[in-house]
Amino acid sequence: MRSSETSSASEAGRAARTARPTLVTGSVVLVTGAAAGMGELYARRAAKEGARAIALWDLDGPRAEALAAELSGGETTARAYVVDVSDREAVREAAGRTVAELGVPDVLINNAGIVRGALFWEHDPERDIELTMRVNTLAPMWLTRELLRAMLADRGRPKRILNIASAAGTLANPRMSVYAASKWAMIGWSESLRLELAREGHGHVAVTTFCPSYVSTGMFAGARGPLLTPIMTPVRAARAAWEGMLAGTPLVLRPWTVKLAMALRGILPTRVWDAIADRVFHVYSSMDRFTGRG
């Protein structure tokens, strides 16, 4: 996170419980990948809006503990949980412990994710392919399934599920085959879940899928934003996702060029779109210098 973004995050923490009440006020919020990046920003926003309890799931125990200590105070209790979301049993056990200690989440934010940027044949089957699918796709499904029945049964207040996907799940891109596959799958699951809930009369549970282009968290270090698509700051991206979640917006796509690219890809012949995406928008070369967090 850059210094200006760190400052903004710190200000959000200091301003905890000073915002006008929202549906988050008095609620239980669970955030995966909560110790840093956008996950930290979601946790800080929950504290700012007066959440009763915040569950911070992350592999980085010390950092999660430090954030929990900072956000706890007044009527808000934040608690850190060291969880490897790629392990289904670990997810099940931590979900049960979170509910027992803090209550059924009113807001679930499936934020944890990893990226492996490489040509497909360079991916290791276990370390890259299987792990990416477990963290990015299966973990949100496992966790949501563990919590959903209790969320459906509790109609005392509105519920929200925010699934952090990616623009990579809307358009193919070289050197992102496995990551794109994980996010395409997440979008398909998230949108289908939204429709199932609506059709089965569970309108108090709203699902929002967030599909941003590149965000400067360090996760996509070295990537280059396509034409007219600046790399977003975490603060701006998290704000768009959060506000969409509060409103119950089904799909939040940022920036606007993500929608444009989806529209063009839908109406143009594949070879024509390939030429435009590659030579005009430079989408297909955006990962050529990708390094990630190293």
Summarize the structure.
Belongs to the short-chain dehydrogenases/reductases (SDR) family. One of its GO terms (molecular function) is oxidoreductase activity, acting on the CH-OH group of donors, NAD or NADP as acceptor. By secondary structure, this protein is an alpha/beta fold.
Describe this structure in words.
The protein is an alpha/beta fold and 294 residues long. It has a single domain (3-216, 229-255), classed as 3-Layer(aba) Sandwich (Rossmann fold). The protein has helices spanning 3-14, 37-48, 61-71, 88-102, 125-153, 177-199, 234-247, 256-267, 270-280; strands at residues 28-32, 53-58, 77-82, 107-110, 159-164, 205-212, 251-254. The chain has a seven-stranded parallel β-sheet with strand order 3-2-1-4-5-6-7, sandwiched between helices. Helix 1 (3-14) runs parallel beside helix 2, helix 2 (37-48) crosses helix 7 (234-247) and helix 4 (88-102) packs parallel to helix 5. The chain is globular and about 55 Å long.
What is the H/E string? HEHEHEHEHEHEHEHH
Widest sheet, order of strands: 3-2-1-4-5-6-7
Our measurement of the CA-to-CA distance between the termini, rounded to an integer number of angstroms, reads 15 Å
Q: How many separate domains? A: 1
Q: What is the CATH topology classification name?
A: Rossmann fold
Mean of the pLDDT scores?
Answer: 91
CATH class: Alpha Beta
What is the number of E strands?
7
Percent range for β-strand residues = 5-15%
Low-confidence stretches: 1-17
What is the number of helical segments per DSSP (H or I, 4+ residues)? Answer: 9
Main sheet, how many strands, which sense, barrel?
7 strands, parallel
Q: What percentage of residues falls in helices of 4 or more residues?
A: 40-55%
Rg, nearest Å = 19 Å
Structural class: alpha/beta
What would you call the quaternary organization? Answer: single chain
At CATH level 2, the architecture is 3-Layer(aba) Sandwich
Query: Quick one: overall form?
Result: globular
CATH-defined superfamily: NAD(P)-binding Rossmann-like Domain
